[in-house]
Amino acid sequence: MPPHLWAEQLQTGSVNIAVDAETKPSAPQSNTLRAWSLIALLFIVIVLLEGLTGDRSELRFQGGKPSFPLILSATGAPLEIHFKSGPREELVIAEGIGTTRLQRDPSRAKDAGYEVRSLDDGTVRTRLSFRRSPTQKTVSLRPPSGIEAMRLDSFDLRVVKSTRATIGGYEALGWLVVVCFACIPVVCLLGRSPVFSQWVFAASTLTWMLFFQPAFALALLAFLVFVHRLGLECARNHITGKGASAWNLLRLGGGMALAFLLVGKYGADAVAELFANPGGLALAMPLGISYFVIRVLDTQLRWYRGDLVDVSLREFLAYVLFPATVAAGPIATLPGFRKGWLGPVSLSEIGPPIRRILQGIAKKIVLVQIFLGGMLFGIGPVAFDPGLMIQVLWDPMGVTSGRILMLPFLMLLYSYLDFSAYSDIAIGFSRLLGVRMVENFNWPILASDLQEYWRRWHMSLSGWCQRNIFMPATLATRNQFVPAYLTMLAVGLWHAFALPWFLWALHHATGLIVLSKWRHRRGRKRELSRGRICAGVGLTLTFAAAGYSFAFIGDTATALAIYGRFWITLVTLGQI
């Protein structure tokens, strides 16, 4: 157990909870439970509304809604797909059946797959998938040149994956790496004291934001200054016995932080478009908005408990805006950030962090982009045409059983390697900047049960949710159902306000509760044989992989079809 964890264990039903000494609850738990319950209720309402009104695209022909069958020509008006969402990168799946094939007009959308097949009734089925860019609002479809007219009998369209775009995109991420490299010699030569290094950390990230997002950078700085003053006042009120006043200040500060998250990442597309680039102002939410918000929330919760009254504005800014982790974590606490300060790295110590960075880059480029990216999406030098994921998305109920079984496992592996690659790079850069950062993954693919999986997967986030949601909710309710569902709903909310992520949260919370009940009935834990451990690893990986049907795919109907077909195929194989 890490040194900052203490040995107290709280036994509630059949759930064991390790409590962090830094965050041992001292305030009434009912307030915390009510707050997280309201947030979970908000999450449920929003995702259900999105599920009812979540169409982000529509078909148009000659300015109106088309009716089928439809007559198209190579030189006449095209069938148009209009995207109603804001600045997003989206993977679109389309299928048309008619007298000849369809093709897209040349555009900025990038092909991910294209298939034409003649059907038994003499018609032609065209399946295509493409990635539309954040600035592209329309994609046109026509018959091939030379075809005077064609009859299009039907057309099906689904947006199966949608990612919020930020100004600069990968270019901004590349410049952030440059900023990290630029900070290293400054910190090594002049940063013998943490005071100077903290100013360098805050100033470098703000400079990077000012270059890509000047209006937001200034608004962010003003917000953080206000939150710091508000937090110190909250801590003083708690220490002096003004609990009600401290709770009101926490609600104000926490509400403001969550508003950043809701508007910047999960807001309605009409609101999100306001942050695209109005009037030439680069007013956009930054990369890593979720990590920024959770660091602010964690600090506010500590202030509410009367901790960290000695935190200066300089230290607070350096923690929230630490350049190595601002975009993709890991999620360090402020006390952990303090303890992690080791001072400038010496020449004899530079090898391990450099190797960690190179390991992350190799993992990202070779394993994720070239190998798994080619297998799943049909992109890169080792590309499968059209890619396993595209094949399944085209026809989840008709694709072969082998493909439906492979896809969830490959999605899990892709996510693990991709995310852990970013963590390797961030941890390596952190050490070069003089800070030992917390680990984020501990071989979760070797976990023998679901609880162990969550102790190994995205450990900085799962640990934060355990301390700040699961633990207070368990103390307040004294049961295991409400805390499990609240915690997993919070993890889902942190990823996206979307119906598939809501189903993902139900999937994992139910699995954790079933596992806990089974252990309780089994009684005293016995030492497992090697065979049972291997079986547990296989079952855990299978369950976690099934959840990626929701985590990877944004279209709820498609995700449910893949999820159901995956389990049905497994059950069928088990009966053979």
Describe the structure.
The protein is 56% helix and 14% strand. The chain is α+β, with helices and mostly antiparallel strands and 576 residues long. The chain is globular and about 80 Å long.
Q: Which key terms come to mind for this protein?
A:
576 residues, 11 strands, globular, four-stranded antiparallel sheet, disordered N terminus, alpha+beta, 18 helices
Task: List strands and helices in order, with pairings.
Blueprint: E1 5-12, E2 15-20, H1 29-53, E3 57-61, E4 70-72, E5 79-83, E6 88-98, E7 103-104, E8 110-118, E9 124-132, E10 138-142, E11 150-164, H2 170-190, H3 194-212, H4 214-239, H5 243-266, H6 269-272, H7 289-304, H8 313-320, H9 334-339, H10 351-377, H11 388-394, H12 401-432, H13 450-456, H14 459-477, H15 481-495, H16 499-522, H17 530-551, H18 556-575
Antiparallel strand pairs: 1-2, 3-5, 4-11, 5-10, 6-9, 6-11, 7-10, 8-9
Helix pairs in contact: 1-14, 1-15, 2-3, 3-4, 3-8, 4-5, 4-7, 5-7, 10-12, 12-17, 12-18, 14-15, 15-16, 16-17, 17-18
E-strand count: 11
The number of helical elements comes to 18
Strand order of the largest sheet: 4-11-6-9-8
User: Beta-strand percentage?
Assistant: 5-15%
By helix and strand content, what is the structural category? Answer: alpha+beta
Mean pLDDT: 79
- The shape is globular
Instruction: Tell me the radius of gyration.
Output: 26 Å
Q: Mind summarizing the main beta sheet? A: 5 strands, antiparallel
